[in-house]
Amino acid sequence: MTSSSNLLPIYRLLPGLTATAALSYAASEYWVLVPFLHRDIPKEAPGIWWNQALWPGTAGVLAIGWTSVGAGILSMRHTAGEAQSLYKWGAIFAAAHFIFAPFVAQVIKRTVYGPPENSKNEVRTWLKIHTLRTIVADLPAAICFLRAFLATL
Predict the structure, then answer these.
(1) pLDDT at res. 3
(2) Any idea what the Cα angle at residue 91 is, between residues 86 and 92, rounded to 5°?
(3) Could you tell me which of 102, 83, 78 has the C-alpha nearest to residue 153?
(4) Is the dihedral of CA 120, 102, 134, 53 positive or negative?
(5) CB 139 within 8 A of CB 26
(6) Distance between CA atoms of 107 and 69, rounded to whole angstroms?
(7) Which of 36, 49, 92, 133 would give a disulfide with 100, using CB separation of 3.0 to 4.6 Å?
(8) What is the pTM of this model?
(9) Which keywords has UniProt assigned to this entry (predicted)?
(10) Based on C-alpha coordinates, what's the Rg of the chain?
């Protein structure tokens, strides 16, 4: 057994780790955004926050998400059977996260540039889209990748 063979299980865990990181990030979005819905928070606050947090947050999401996709594809190419299928589906689900980008972008745009009176409703809309995306893309990706890794052991 070569030293690279010894690293394969760790290498194949990478998509599961990054997909789990994506789920953790998704959970943190609730802790950050739900307080903006409180009546004592000024209606301008969500737009100000998005204007400051959008680019750093986007960079993190892109790095985590595309690492999941890429590592899932690489792991798929070096496995067979159930693991290969699970890595493939994990990569598809991880990529599906980005299908929601145009919808999310419009909500953020309206929150930042629209009338402040609508900002809290836009946060509610964003949370609905975010919840759907987490359930139909992020969670299935993490499950597939972690099951794929276990199938390689």
Answers:
(1) 44
(2) 95
(3) 83
(4) negative
(5) no
(6) 25
(7) 133
(8) 0.91
(9) Membrane, Transmembrane, Transmembrane helix
(10) 18
Instruction: Report d(CA 76, CA 105) in Å as an integer.
Output: 31
Residue 40 carries which DSSP code?
T
Distance CA 28, CA 13 (A): 23
Quick one: DSSP state of residue 135? Answer: I
Instruction: Read off the pLDDT band of 2 (50, 70, 90).
Output: very low
What is the total residue count of the chain? 153
State the first-to-last Cα distance of the chain, in angstroms, to the nearest integer. 15
C-beta of residue 110 within 8 angstroms of C-beta of residue 122: yes
Can you give the residue range of the structural domain that contains 83? Answer: 3-152
> What total number of domains does the chain contain?
1
Specify the residue for token string 């893309």.
137
The residue type found at 8 is L
- Say what the pLDDT of residue 5 is: 52
Query: Phi, psi (5° rounding) for residue 80?
Result: -140, 170
